[in-house]
Design brief:
44% helix; 149 residues; CBS-domain; alpha/beta
């Protein structure tokens, strides 16, 4: 399965010049813990980073900085890891594990944002696949019982 089919396509984004206060307000408004920091407009957005509620708490609140004076680019991880929309789910899981990240922006071949995938999204998808696999033996046994009777 391709990661583009698993990712969440409704992504909450902010721009590089947003303050931490503005970012926190977006997180609250949309009930998310991660924002994609991006350049571009509407249908042509290119991710440049991620900012999380943890970045806000540790990078700003715990450091007693003024969230109205700090930009999201100052607290986001400067190294962005992305997944191509046509990457395999298992390839993406491996990339997340190697990089130690729980969320990845999903991009097209041109680097434009198409979604975001989280550890939870992948666990949900894998759970469905494991459940379907578990039912195969049961169905086979039922089929054999019907054929023998």
């Amino acid at each position: 399965m391709l990661i583009g089919n698993v990712c969440t396509q409704q992504v909450v984004c902010t721009h590089r010049n947003a303050t931490v206060t503005e970012a926190a307000q977006l997180m609250r408004q949309f009930h998310v813990g991660t924002l994609v920091v991006a350049d571009g407009e509407q249908d042509s957005v290119t991710p440049i980073g991620l900012v999380t509620d943890r970045d806000v708490a540790i990078g700003v609140v715990a450091a007693q900085m003024d969230p109205d004076e700090v930009l999201v680019t100052e607290i986001m991880n400067p190294t962005l890891v992305t997944a191509l929309e046509d990457a395999d789910v298992y390839e993406t899981i491996q990339k997340m594990g190697l990089r130690g990240v729980r969320r990845l922006p999903v991009v097209d071949a041109g680097g434009r944002l198409v979604g975001i995938v989280s550890e939870d999204d992948l666990l949900e998808q894998l759970s469905r696949e494991m459940s379907a696999l578990a039912h195969i033996s049961h169905r086979q046994q039922n089929k054999e019982a019907i054929l023998r009777d």
